[in-house]
Design brief:
Low-confidence stretches: 355-361
Structural class: alpha+beta
Number of strands: 6
Radius of gyration: 28 Å
Number of helices: 18
Order of helices and strands: HHHHHHHHEEEHEHHEEHHHHHHH
Strand order of the largest sheet: 1-3-2-4
CATH topology of the largest domain: Arc Repressor Mutant, subunit A
Mean pLDDT: 83
Shape: globular
Number of domains: 4
CATH architecture of the largest domain: Orthogonal Bundle
CATH class of the largest domain: Mainly Alpha
């Protein structure tokens, strides 16, 4: 049944009210008058295709939602803004949500037309009793990180590319520009499945940590349907649990101690063993030279580089594992602020800040887009739109398309031949 103008008007008004926006706010976003929005919602003004797409983006929806047989009043964006009404007025966060959902829907569409099965149904759920204290939150996060590493066969090794890791679990992984105080978000939406996005403005290692943090929300908190991670919520028990998971997932205890052993650091200054000889014990003892086991700035730099995290995150993980104490943490933080970057450069380690330019989470979307173009399932123009979505320039796309053996040039029609003129010329 065709959608009437009146029904479309009702759906637009319902979608606006669901996310808590006023007609004035929508009018300002669309650059029209408030009466124009009022007439639109009353069915007395036509809605252009461009306006409908802008409305959908503003409400955290797909434009096709408005024409679906059944209109869903509740989606992840609605849940998020009802839980945090103050976020509704943040235009930058709304834009980030729209960009993340656009990425997720593009990926879902490509998988659907290429007949790729999603793995999200196999994603485990770690849903213990909600933590009542920070200590419980930390324990839950650490236990889940160990269990997840075991399930994925990672043991004590550094994580592989996190975007690939998340995508292989059926999770959409995006990076979009967000307000500085927001590190990431997790959404569970019918149109995209499970989606996590991190703040593209942050440095590379910070984004890696944020991906692990949002992965925790995907494993623990899918029933919430939507979650945004903000600095201001750092003491929230769900955020504490996600941070605990991220630290243990990125820097597993066994791996950290193993690498410290490789550096000849981190052991006790005095080690004793009692060997039973059938009647009693025989004492064996080893004493390390004074200060030889003390972790230093260059050790932190190497450890951070090995596991692909920031030096600051590494320091706090060493404190959590009781490798260093509070006083040594303060000393190392001060030394790292003064010498850490130069020390890493002297050791030939990449500067984490250079990671701002590293393209996380775009390769698979582009590769699937090229394959869809090869099968003539999408147009070259649509491939360029997908490339623009993830920051891949058209000249790079042209090279990929050429390497795939795809000719996207329009066929050249033969020029008409004036046979009469040719006969006259020959006579």
């Amino acid at each position: 049944m065709a959608l009437t103008t009146e029904e479309l008007a009702v759906r637009i008004r319902t979608a606006r009210e669901a996310v808590g926006l006023t007609q004035g706010a929508v009018a300002a976003a669309l650059e029209v008058s408030r009466p124009a929005i009022s007439q639109m919602e009353a069915g007395k003004r036509a809605v252009s295709g461009l306006e409908l797409h802008r409305l959908a983006a503003l409400f955290g929806r797909s434009a096709t939602d408005f024409f679906a047989e059944t209109f869903r009043e509740r989606n992840a964006t609605v849940v998020l803004f009802r839980r945090h009404p103050e976020l509704g007025a943040d235009a930058k966060l709304r834009e980030a949500l729209s960009e993340a959902l656009t990425f997720g829907r593009a990926m879902s569409h490509l998988e659907r037309i290429l007949d790729i099965d999603s793995q999200s149904a196999a994603l485990p759920s770690y849903a213990p009793v909600a933590p009542r204290t920070k200590w419980q939150a930390v324990q839950q996060g650490e236990r889940a990180a160990g269990a997840e590493r075991g399930r994925l066969g990672l043991d004590a090794r550094p994580l592989p590319d996190q975007v690939d890791l998340l995508e292989m679990q059926g999770i959409r992984a995006a990076q979009v520009r967000m307000p500085e105080e927001v590190s990431g978000l997790t959404l569970l939406d019918d149109s995209v499945g499970v989606l996590v996005a991190v703040n593209r403005r942050h440095a590379f290692n910070r984004r890696r940590y944020s991906f692990a943090h949002e992965y925790a929300h995907a494993l623990f908190d899918r029933d919430r349907q939507a979650n945004v991670s903000r600095t201001v919520d750092g003491d929230c028990l769900l955020e504490v649990r996600a941070n605990s998971f991220a630290a243990a997932f990125l820097l597993p205890a066994a791996g950290v101690r193993q690498f410290l052993g490789y550096l000849a650091k981190g052991a006790a200054s005095r080690t004793q063993r009692h060997v039973f000889d059938g009647e009693g014990g025989r004492l064996a003892e080893r004493r390390s030279p004074p200060g030889s086991q003390e972790v230093r700035v260059h050790d932190v730099a190497l450890l951070a580089h090995h596991f692909g995290v920031s030096r600051l995150a590494t320091l706090y993980r060493l404190k959590s594992l009781r490798v260093i104490g509070e006083q040594r943490l303060a000393q190392l933080r001060k030394q790292d602020a003064e010498l850490g970057r130069d020390m890493a450069r002297a050791l030939g380690l990449a500067d984490p800040e250079e990671g701002r330019r590293r393209p996380l989470g775009r390769n698979r979307l582009v590769v699937l887009g090229v394959e869809a173009l090869r099968r003539e399932l999408i147009s070259y123009r649509r491939l360029c739109e997908l490339g623009e979505l993830v920051g891949v320039k058209e000249n790079a796309l042209e090279q990929l398309v050429a390497q795939a053996g795809i000719d996207v040039r329009p066929p050249v029609a033969p020029l008409p031949v004036d046979w009469e003129a040719l006969r006259g010329r020959s006579s």
